[in-house]
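Protein 1 of 2
SEQ + STRUCT:
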Amino acid sequence: MGLLSGAARCLVRGADRMSKWTSKRGPRSFYKGRGTKAPGVHARGGKFVVVKEMVPELVVPDLAGFKLKPYVNYRAPAGTDTPLTAEQLFREAVAPAIERDFKDGTFDPEQLEKYGFEPTQEGKLFQLYPKNFPR
């Protein structure tokens, strides 16, 4: 083998290593897959044990008689709803329960956890106060 043919073979092999790794390039048993998790665990002796809780369950509603189609035209007009603010969310979700308890005389300002308020942000992934609080 000459010097030039050896150099050419190295270039071809290098380019081949840079190409996309597919099941066509691997051994007969190679299956690349799509990156999903296996619905079980590998046990001793090369056996695979399916765990019922790990099997994905697809919940599909009955769409018999449903009039809407799944396609939305890109020319459809934009929605007319305004974005929901924190004040609107409070008035719709929490304020009725607070008003009801206030009228019944059972409202306690020390028990705001009952309405979804959290006294501290300890243990939260994104703490709202004081570092990450929007200014």
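Protein 2 of 2
SEQ + STRUCT:
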Amino acid sequence: MAPIAVGDVIPDGKLAYFDENDQLQQISVHSIASGKKVILFAVPGAFTPTCSQKHVPGFIEKAEELKSKGVDEILCISVNDPFVLKAWAKTYPENKHVKFLADGSATYTHSLGLELDLSEKGLGIRSRRFALLVDDLKVKVANIESGGEFTVSSADDILKAL
């Protein structure tokens, strides 16, 4: 399957998260992104060094600036279970705007064509690192990394595109 690209409509799919009442919820990607300007960014794994020290903190630090430029939602997707993402989100007490969404079986990641096979490292199927700027379900910017790189998918890269 070809990776999602500029001009494509993002597929719908279900992702999981814990709400403010600590209840496990499923959300449709289209329900959260329809009619909105949304950043969907993904990391290969929660608690991994580049993801935890660079990628996620960048979006948390730049969230107000992104929102001032018209971004309605900032969504972090990881191929981990929702319990892991809940614990990971708690390591960012300063976070007010980034939502952590679990794609436990990589189903949504596969529908984007952005899976990354890290089986040789004992990590199974994960997501490539990427950042998509989506406006009313249509991809406007698709910054997709090769392998484990972190060169084009930062919050600053999305800010430059806005």
